[in-house]
Amino acid sequence: VQLVEPGGGLVQPGGSLRLSCTASGYIFSVYSMGWFRQAPGNQRELVATITSGGSTNYADSVKGRFVISRDSAKNTVYLQMNSLKPEDTTVYYCNLNTWAGNYWGQGTQVSVSS
Prior knowledge:
Structural class: mainly beta
Largest sheet: 7 strands, mixed
Distance between the termini: 37 Å
């Protein structure tokens, strides 16, 4: 299983950015897909997840600003990030949680700065 995460980049405070992640390979019994982030020296933390049934979960720090969605037919998950803040700057990792295991993307850098 491979997760590919194009996207990321530099955006000004208050701006928007959309991340995407596509899973490929032998994938079955998906529990959820989601996004986590990790700053240097810190633990990886949950940003948002979406289950196969469409239920979503967000970190308090991003509620009302970020929206997670998925295209199950394409095994793709999206993260629409609005009203970005400098403290959102870090590496974002895509996650695929299945019956067979838990998989991670390589990470994509998001930088919020003027």
